[in-house]
Amino acid sequence: MKNVQGYIKEHKERFLNELTELLKIPSISADSAYKNDVLKTAEAVKTSLEKAGCDMVEICPTEGYPIVYGEKIFDDSLPTVLVYGHYDVQPADPLELWTSPPFEPVIKKTETHPHGAIYARGACDDKGQMYMHVKALEFMTKTNQLPCNVKFMVEGEEEVGSVNLSTFVKENQEKLKNDVILISDTGMIANDIPSITTGLRGLSYVEVEVTGPNRDLHSGLYGGAVANPINVLTKMIASLHDENNHITIPDFYDKVENLSEAERTEMAKAPFNLENYKKALDIEAVYGENGYTTNERNSIRPTLDVNGIWGGYTGEGAKTVIASKAFAKISMRLVPHQEWEEITQLFKTHFESIAPKGVKVKVKPHHGGQGYVTPIDNIGYQAASKAYEETFGKTPIPQRSGGSIPIVALFEQELKSKTILMGFGLDSDAIHSPNEHFGVFNYLKGIETIPYFYKYFVELSK
Fold first, then answer.
1. Which tens digit of pLDDT belongs to each residue from 245-264?
2. C-alpha closest to that of 41 among 70, 61, 14, 21
């Protein structure tokens, strides 16, 4: 890849400005109030792919938000790389915790990012990382160094479970036919310690509703005489873990793979400083399932977490009321072999069974997906490893992630190809949180590294 660093240096400000404009659009797929902004973002992605060198780009409608598809096919005898990303973002709440408005991107220097980091919702997840691929394609096409065919599939529903992607993939297998799938929606250990994600957890996401009396009640006149849905809900949630932080749902662990001591020993070689971890989060101690390290708890073990809980009066001042209803949103991160639909049903059956008399319980499944493990002996992984070696000067460490990209397992099932997860974000980039950011170094390093993946994948495919 001749002069990739020179090309990036020459166009650095434009690359940053283009990403900034994309980040200004609040493409929040979970909130229908932002529908026009999500659609506007799809148009912006289409335009960027056309300018980067795709010969054909189209916006493909679905029953929800559209999928942007682009391709540059110039030799059917050469391999084809399919790039997947998403243009939708998480809600920005709570807004008051942002140090700058979430959709007014700014670059700030930090201890972790001395070259600056772009602060905005979607900076790292996934607009910034998706856009690295667009700019990498631009470099390869403008300098006549694209070594193989490329296809792009960029969706607008990843943050709400990729609701319509499955149908699109199943109905467009010939269009999406490829030799390897490339995704940057993960991270690496540190800017001086590159790593490649080789495993993802699955996901089951549900919402629960507990109903007591048919209306809100005066807590003096009725307190102690009727079940309080908020009290009941908190007790039910608390019972989902035992004293060892083990999940108590019957049969929940039946299909959980227990890694060998040899595999756990290899995982432990990844650099990790527990004191720095606690300091970064401003906590006195870590917490989790007994018998496992922090890095094992957040990658190879399943979890159950409350993501939101509400009910009753939460405004200013006091209101002495027993609420009629209480609600919670709960996510379960799953490991490979756990079937997310089966786990959702196990949760529903158990949660309904532990409800005391005096309340009614509803469990509403939202979305989910399977976990995934990428073998490190395939040529896709080897090409990625060589690409990182080229630009970082170090062999990347294979690492399992605690996050979920539910569609990865679907891709292998339907398209029969492996997925390579070349992430350039850091754990400290606050994705899904206030003050999400993405390092300028990381953004530009991704643009530099991705073309080498193409180069080495073609060479190893011969």
1. 999 999 999 999 888 888 88
2. 21
